[in-house]
Amino acid sequence: MRDTPFTRFASDPPRCDFPVARVRAWKLLDAPHGLGIVAPAMVRRTMASGADLVHAHGYGYFPTVAAAFGTALDGAALVVTPHSDAGRPTWAKRLFDGLVPGLTLKRAHRLIAVSKHEAAHLERLGMPPDKIRVVPNGVDLSEFAEFAEGRQPSDCVTGLFVGRIDPDQKGLVTLVRSIALLPHAVHIQIRLVGEDWGGTALLRTMAGRLGVIDRIVFVGKLERDALIREYAKADFLILPSLFEPFGIVLLEAMAAGLPVIASKVGGIPEVVGDGDSGLLVEPGNTTSLADAILRFCRDESLRKEMGRNGKVRASRYAWESVTPQILSVYQQALEERCS
To answer: pLDDT class for 4, splitting at 50, 70, 90?
Structure first.
């Protein structure tokens, strides 16, 4: 297995509607959670920006370290969205959670937790509750506005996974094993969309050994337009994660009118209503996951009902509702900086 894949952008950056500064990053060593990747110029850029406020994402990666260090030197307000949870119970994770928050999170004027689950985790890391604000991730509903309510009828039901092909987090080994438990008469295809984080070869071998390679399609990473088309073709989304702070793909799927099968972990139960917009199962439970898949395969009316309910739930997370909440946190951070 490898840590986060480290690749350099093409020389021509994509066009954006806002200024984007790019700096060179260096991978000094292979260390857990990307701790071996540094970009010293990012600190200089942060200080040279003259910003009143810096918002950093992911508390262990170098951009947040640069933001914490830069704002400490130039006096800007700092807001951090950690996107964190307890994760894997390993010595590396325990060491990480013991050392890194002091360099990043404790410097922040405000912390944005994307779920109540994450807020509780941040408190366990020693963060003051009065600095934590729960603001969920948002979704652009306009990307899915033209989707038809009903999919084209087909003999084969299509399940869609969107995310990193990372068996250690995303529960994809459990998914492959659950597919092998489905009756041969069930016509199903599971499409795995996302960047390979070292799991594709393992999953292909396992699927071949279990005799389900014809039921799984390894699509790979897609551009945005192609990903939207995958949502349009699917009958349901499946996210069998072993841990998950939030899961933005859940919002995208519900906005697309897809019912969801997901693990009952992290922030997922706050996003997906069990029995309303989807089915939640215990993480790592192969039989329960197979039963949920089979239920969706055999009950089209249930899929449609939950898909409709999901669209209603997704509307609560529209950026038009979420953005003012983030701006409110910015204002609080600026006021604290000046006090």
So the answer is: low
Selection from 167, 162, 179, 237 nearest residue 203 by Cα = 167
- Tell the residue number behind the tokens 């390894």, with chain if given: 218
User: How many H helices and E strands in the chain?
Assistant: 13, 12
Handedness of CA 114, 120, 125, 128 (dihedral sign): positive
Fold match between 26-138+319-338 and 141-315?
yes
Lowest-confidence region among 50-59, 181-190, 271-280 = 50-59
CA dist 143 to 34, 147, 221, Å?
Answer: 32, 9, 19
pLDDT at 2 over 60: no
Phi, psi of 77, deg, nearest 5: -75, 150
> CA-to-CA distance for 123 and 97, rounded, in angstroms?
12
Number of Cβ within 10 Å of residue 231's Cβ equals 21
Q: Pairing between strand 37-38 and 26-27?
A: antiparallel
Packing angle, helices 300-315 and 286-298, rounded to 10: 100
Whole-structure pTM value: 0.90
Residue type, 150: G
Does the domain at residues 26-138+319-338 carry the CATH identifier 2.30.130.10?
Answer: no
User: Given the DSSP bridges, would you call strands 110-113 and 132-134 parallel, antiparallel or unpaired?
Assistant: parallel
> Residue ranges of the domains in the chain?
26-138+319-338, 141-315
**Chain centroid offset of residue 324 CA:** 22
CATH topology of domain 141-315: Rossmann fold (3.40.50)
Q: CA 303 to CA 235: how far, in whole Å?
A: 7
Instruction: State how far the alpha carbon of 138 is from the alpha carbons of 79, 86, 310, in Å.
Output: 17, 22, 14
